[in-house]
């Protein structure tokens, strides 16, 4: 049995190559950028008004109580104003309207005095010196052409899509979504809702499938492998080598029981990277293998739902991120609210709850019911707390690394 750190090192070395594809920007949510994406234009595209008001020349406002003649009106989306600008001219302008050449400052509408009156306005009265460049949005002040918008390896979020569409980028190159073929295993597993008490409902496949949008993969159900389906599983691995499937994941049949056939089948193939059994809880029997000379891997997750969920989050997902060239996740840090103790040599993934205190600090509460068969505590949790090996006692007030169970920490941008 190896440590969690050793297992992660094997996963890092065994990453697979995922090809690129070009997609519509509007379809890029939660995809990984394959290239640096740069702005193709300036934003704003020209100097424009930050407020509704009137554009004037600042140098014309030296005199007190000066009348300015209204020579036109500009709305956002209007073509550039072409009239020749004279001394003491003013033009009405709406937010976003392009400021005509010659004008260099905006007087907000709230400060305007109309002459002879607002209803029949022909002039505005300026009674103070107006500084240059007031309420002006300058060309390229947000993004200049060729400015970096998104770094290679970034997981794209809704904020990125807003920027890309604003800047006129309709298509981008991203990493293809990995294809995962998932098998549940065991005679006891059933897809029926009404089952006898010696059977177990198939929840693991539905849980993993529910993560595919958040965790960057395509889920393909392989159904249920029964205890006598060893030959069928071997056949599926042979198919894997020449298919579009990147990864097979099994749930169950990885321990040391009479019908736990997954390890023996996998070991019958020529492998370049392999481990089985990691000093973690939950999920100790977890297995990983890479087919030698191929960009194909297999994960064997424990059949227990909580163990399967933990191993997906702390083994499969980091492997996917690394293979996609995405930046590694950073943990959320929270202050431990109640002390916790474990075996020193084990890494523990603990069902926990993060709360925000009145003074804005994140506190972590370890929940009761850490046994791997208990799903109630998983439902009541909102975070996995990560307690590393090498230490057995964690005191109240310690800073603990945390990871969201159903969402990447990379979403915290």
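Sequence proposed for the structure above (413 residues):
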């Amino acid at each position: 049995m190896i440590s969690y750190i050793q297992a992660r090192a094997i996963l890092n070395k065994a990453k697979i190559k995922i090809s690129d594809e070009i997609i519509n920007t509007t379809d890029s949510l939660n995809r990984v950028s394959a290239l640096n994406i740069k702005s193709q234009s300036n934003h704003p595209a020209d100097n424009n008004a930050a407020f509704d008001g009137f554009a004037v020349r600042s140098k014309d406002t030296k005199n007190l109580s000066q009348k300015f003649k209204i020579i036109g009106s500009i709305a956002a989306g209007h073509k550039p104003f072409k009239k020749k600008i004279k001394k003491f001219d003013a033009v009405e302008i709406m937010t976003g309207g392009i400021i005509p050449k010659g004008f260099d400052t905006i007087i907000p509408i709230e400060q305007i005095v109309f002459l002879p009156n607002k209803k029949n306005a022909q002039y505005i009265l300026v009674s103070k010196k107006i500084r240059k460049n007031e309420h002006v949005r300058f060309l390229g002040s947000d993004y200049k052409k060729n400015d970096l918008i998104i770094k290679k390896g970034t997981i794209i979020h809704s904020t990125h899509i807003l920027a890309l569409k604003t800047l006129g980028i309709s298509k981008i190159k991203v990493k293809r979504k990995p294809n995962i073929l998932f098998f549940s295993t065991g005679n006891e597993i059933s897809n029926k809702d009404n089952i006898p008490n010696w059977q177990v409902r198939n929840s693991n496949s539905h849980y993993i499938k529910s993560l595919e949008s958040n965790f960057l993969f395509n889920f393909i159900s392989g159904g249920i492998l029964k205890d006598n389906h060893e030959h069928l599983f071997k056949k599926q691995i042979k198919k894997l080598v020449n298919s579009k499937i990147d990864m097979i994941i099994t749930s169950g049949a990885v321990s040391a029981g009479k019908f736990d056939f997954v390890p023996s089948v996998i070991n019958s193939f020529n492998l370049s990277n392999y481990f089985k059994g990691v000093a973690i809880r939950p999920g100790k029997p977890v297995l990983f293998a890479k087919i030698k000379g191929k960009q194909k891997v297999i994960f064997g997750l424990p059949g227990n739902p909580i163990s399967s969920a933990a191993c997906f989050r702390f083994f499969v997902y980091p492997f996917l991120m690394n293979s996609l060239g995405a930046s590694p996740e950073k943990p959320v840090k929270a202050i431990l609210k109640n002390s916790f103790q474990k075996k020193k040599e084990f890494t523990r993934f603990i069902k926990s709850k993060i709360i925000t205190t009145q003074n804005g600090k994140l506190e972590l509460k370890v929940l009761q019911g850490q046994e791997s068969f208990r799903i109630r505590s998983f439902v009541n949790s909102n975070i996995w707390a990560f307690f590393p090996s090498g230490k057995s006692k964690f005191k109240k007030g310690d800073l603990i690394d945390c990871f969201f169970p159903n969402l990447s920490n990379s979403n915290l941008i």
